[in-house]
């Protein structure tokens, strides 16, 4: 029985070791994939710091050791649940990807870090003057909902990911609206929003940005065009009213003709109708 318990413990330990190895392998693969997406990282070796870098690293560890425990206040940093820290050591990205949430360690005089907020942001696109496909000038504004999906790429690949996304949203709004006629812009806002969302999401993937939603807020027409459309709608309503009135007159005349035919066939009915009309007067 003791031998069976020992075998079961060995199996459990082996399973835990295998699971840990799988997790480490997945983390390494994910980090390598992130480095492949970083511009200029194909030929860079993160472990090649050089002799000067090694000396500075050793000196930093020495300073941390002789200034304990005061150095701990400088070495340990904290990021919130919705934040990630991208660490650079001597200008190179530290292996392991972005750190957080919680506590992480940095070397003084060696490491610098950038804190990235992962929460969803909203951008109110200002009104854009757009020339539609049928040569009508309209003013369109929208709202873009986006977030940082990869903190490392958003820091390493673009100088200002948020500002770049906002500028791209403005140009994409003008480009998409310029390919649609006015009646589609007024009636197919949801389809236009989906097209914009897909175009923005594809363009910002290399910046570590995920565009979650795009909504068209308002389409403002020129005053002259509004008046012309109002006059056209009023003329359409008047024409419809005249058609309805003509159809009513036609039905009434047909009913009178049928009534006259019935009365002409019965002299008594004609006399009764005459007396009824006199009573009304």
From TrEMBL:
Superkingdom to which the source organism belongs: Eukaryota
Assigned keywords, A-Z: Membrane, Transmembrane, Transmembrane helix
Protein name: Band 7 protein AGAP004871-like isoform X1
Residues that span the membrane, as ranges: 59-79
Keyword Membrane carried by entry: yes
Organism: Diaphorina citri
Subcellular location: Membrane
Family: Belongs to the band 7/mec-2 family.
Domain Band: 74-233
PROSITE patterns membership: BAND_7 (PS01270)
Any coiled-coil regions, as ranges: none
GO cellular component, one term: plasma membrane
């Amino acid at each position: 029985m003791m031998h069976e318990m020992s075998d079961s413990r060995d199996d459990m330990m082996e399973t835990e070791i295998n699971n840990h190895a799988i997790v480490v392998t997945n983390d390494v693969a994910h980090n390598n994939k992130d480095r492949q997406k970083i511009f200029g990282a194909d030929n860079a070796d993160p472990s090649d710091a050089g002799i000067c870098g090694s000396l500075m690293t050793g000196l930093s560890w020495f300073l941390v050791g002789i200034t304990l425990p005061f150095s701990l206040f400088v070495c340990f940093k904290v990021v919130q649940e919705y934040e990630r820290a991208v660490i650079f050591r001597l200008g190179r990205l530290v292996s392991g990807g972005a750190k957080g949430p919680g506590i992480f360690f940095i070397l003084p005089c060696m490491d610098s870090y950038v804190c990235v907020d992962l929460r969803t942001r909203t951008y109110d696109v200002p009104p854009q003057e757009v020339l539609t496909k049928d040569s009508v000038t309209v003013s369109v504004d929208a709202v873009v909902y986006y977030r940082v999906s990869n903190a490392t790429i958003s820091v390493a690949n673009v100088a200002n990911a948020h500002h770049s996304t906002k500028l791209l949203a403005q140009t994409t709004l003008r480009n998409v609206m310029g390919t649609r006629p006015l009646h589609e812009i007024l009636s197919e806002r949801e389809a236009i929003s989906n097209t914009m969302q897909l175009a923005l999401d594809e363009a910002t993937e290399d910046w570590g940005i995920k565009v979650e939603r795009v909504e068209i807020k308002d389409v403002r027409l020129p005053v002259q065009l509004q008046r012309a459309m109002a006059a056209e709608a009023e003329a359409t309503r008047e024409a419809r009213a005249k058609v309805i009135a003509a159809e009513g007159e036609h039905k009434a005349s047909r009913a009178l003709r049928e009534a006259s035919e019935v009365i002409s066939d019965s002299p008594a009915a004609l006399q009764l109708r005459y007396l009824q009309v006199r009573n009304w007067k």
